[in-house]
Model the fold of this input.
Amino acid sequence: MAKEKVKHMSGVFASVFAHAGHITKEEAKEISGMADHEFEKAYDKAATISEKVMEGGGKKMDKFLEHFAKEIEEYMAHFGGKLFE
Done:
């Protein structure tokens, strides 16, 4: 289960780079090592994070980290825990 959580989050992380135009969607999928249907979920989450970062003012990296951290917390809570307990 832990391996799948990490795969999902790595897919989201790589997909943010794809949404920002630094790599392609296919490269993000390759980095994640996820199946097509699972990767699409991660790619959609990255789209939401990217939109929030671009809409927010201030330092973009701070906004990215804030929203990515929320995604990690929400994803981990779904599985009954937190990353750092």
About this structure: The chain has a mean pLDDT of 85. Residues 53 and 60 are 6 Å apart (CA to CA). The radius of gyration is 13 Å.
